[in-house]
């Protein structure tokens, strides 16, 4: 069956068993074709030199067929006869020599380092000697071997057989003068690890869907396979709503939108270390204020600095002499809803054998004023009152 190449592979295509079997069958077909090469004149086979470096072809029937030694000997004899006749007639000799040289070049041309492989488009066998520096020489090939040229009309093929490493490279040329790049042909002599053949990376390893070492990974019918550890020096990427999943415990990480990384199956998140966020942390859709403990005091981030949660913000205090019914004291402005005044607000006076009780009040009348008032004031000496304004967060 002819090999049918698939040339429309896409990045996300799945390589099936049928694909691998088809590829391996193609490789086997090429191997069989190469293995059937022979040094005898067998139809529809590749030409292979025997242990003496020789190969046979059938008798030529068309003008562009390969000439055998029998034909070349005949041509050589004709050239020699022509050379003999040329001794008697110079003009006849020149004509015979031209024909003989042309026949020799077509049969046994030599390609060296100063030549161009693109110049060899005529059917024939050409000996290649030290041709590594020749223009359009097959890349990375041993510089000694044989070039076979086959021509069909104005187009044709070149086949280079390297002596040193059993390499074969082929390319095609067209009537417009263009050339295809050289292509390497793999055989049982030049395949194996390091050869460059894709199939050789599987050399000596068997496919399995289990987590065994030194094997080729094979997927099961559901597309899954088992591995032990995956080590990557780049991103581990997932597509769709998938991500990482724990087969044993039913949790993992995944994404279903461009914003959030989600714990799969609503699993709790635990760490023995720390959680850190440069942005905000949300609870049921509401951003939580960032908090911290600073020397035992709970503080929160108010957008520009850390602020204690509750507790005393500031205390202002003083000692004031009161000689009138009312005294107003100026203070640093405070929040009236979060501040109060503390003062010693009663005292006793004695007049002879009698005493009187006097009451005093202290209050904030605005954010920057404390008023002290004496209630039930009698004619008494000037008194001193200690006061404090305490403001909370």
Question: How does this structure look, described?
Answer:
With 393 residues, the chain is of the alpha+beta class. Among the domains are: 112-187, no CATH class; 230-269, no CATH class; 271-305, no CATH class; 312-392, Immunoglobulin-like, CATH 2.60.40. The protein is 15% helix and 31% strand. It is built from 3 helices and 23 strands. Strands 1-2-3-4-5-6 form a 6-stranded mixed sheet. A hairpin with a 2-residue loop joins strand 12 (281-283) and strand 13 (286-288). Helix 2 (69-88) packs antiparallel against helix 3 (90-108). The longest helix is centred in the first third of the chain and has 20 residues, at 69-88. Residues 350-356 have low confidence and may be disordered.
CATH architecture group name of one domain: Sandwich
Radius of gyration: 51 Å
Terminal CA distance reads: 88 Å
| CATH class category of one domain | Mainly Beta
- Our count of helices gives 3
Q: Could you give the order of strands across the largest sheet?
A: 1-2-3-4-5-6
Work out the helicity level.
Answer: 10-25%
CATH fold naming of one domain: Immunoglobulin-like
- Give the low-pLDDT segments: 350-356
Using DSSP, what is the number of strands? Answer: 23
Rounded mean pLDDT score: 82
Output the structural class.
Answer: alpha+beta
Specify the biggest β-sheet.
6 strands, mixed
Based on Cα principal axes, name the global outline. Answer: rod-shaped
